[in-house]
Amino acid sequence: EPEVTQTPSHQVTQMGQEVILRCVPISNHLYFYWYRQILGQKVEFLVSFYNNEISEKSEIFDDQFSVERPDGSNFTLKIRSTKLEDSAMYFCASSESSGNTDTQYFGPGTRLTVL
Amino acid sequence: QKEVEQDPGPLSVPEGAIVSLNCTYSNSAFQYFMWYRQYSRKGPELLMYTYSSGNKEDGRFTAQVDKSSKYISLFIRDSQPSDSATYLCAMTPVSGQNFVFGPGTRLSVLP
């Protein structure tokens, strides 16, 4: 069964450093998403991406964040200058083209620890 | 009022019990409703997906949506220890758009 994959599974970085989290969505999916989950808190939407551009973003997704689909398979989240409060699980998700039966499939997540 | 609320956990039941998990929401624009299961330190895994009001059954799982009451439920029959996880409801007004998640209910099924 096709699945969303994410790398690395765990990333440790120093405050102020840049990190890039990588995702490979399901191959025939066209919509891509990033969510985060701070330990013990709910899953929060960050950004959605379609047709090589951001379609929606939350207030969490400020200028420190960017997303890119550098090739036909990868979807990346970059945090330019990490802060302690960026420590969280980051989940990538993907979905097929929009329709009534569409929904999102999540990857296993990348645990980001900012020291 | 939070946009999506779930019954607080943790919820502990004996193996074989029927489990009822619930969410309420405030935004009447929500049309698509999902239930996800999340094991510790793993990504959410889609269990059930429903559109608008009504019931949907899949094996031991039944999802109910009552849009007039802004209330959704997930029932698990013959619960198993492997069902022990956090259950998240999620919803969106438009298919393919970002989801709003509930905070989750942690379920423990005791053998």
Poorly predicted runs of chain A are: none
Beta-strand share of residues of chain B: over 45%
Shape of chain B: globular
> What is the largest interface, and how many residues per chain?
A-B, 29 and 24 residues
Rg of chain B, please?
Answer: 13 Å
Sum up the overall morphology of chain A in one term: globular
Largest sheet of chain A: 7 strands, mixed
What structural category do the secondary elements of chain B indicate?
Answer: mainly beta
Give the biggest sheet of chain B: 6 strands, mixed
Helix count of chain A equals 0
The total strand number of chain A stands at 11
Give a count of the beta strands of chain B, DSSP E runs of length 2 or more: 11
H/E series of chain B: EEEEEEEEEEE
Any overview of this molecule?
The complex is a heterodimer of chains A (115) and B (111). In chain A, strands 2, 4, 5, 6, 9, 10 and 11 form a seven-stranded mixed beta sheet that branches. Chain A has a four-stranded antiparallel beta sheet with strand order 1-3-8-7, with no helix packed on it. Chain A is globular. Chain A has strands at 5-7, 10-13, 19-24, 31-37, 44-50, 53-57, 65-68, 75-79, 88-95, 105-106, 110-114. Chain A has no helices and eleven strands. Chain A is 0% helix and 49% strand. Chain A has 115 residues and is mainly β. Chain B is mostly beta strands and 111 residues long. Chain B has no helices and eleven strands. In chain B, the strands form two sheets. In chain B, strands 2, 4, 5, 9, 10 and 11 form a six-stranded mixed beta sheet that branches. A five-stranded antiparallel beta sheet of chain B has the order 1-3-8-7-6, with no helix packed on it. In chain B, β9 (85-92) and β10 form a beta hairpin. The A-B interface holds A 4, 31, 33, 41-45, 48, 55-56, 58, 89, 91, 95, 97-109, 111 and B 32, 34, 36, 41-46, 49, 51, 88, 90, 94-104.
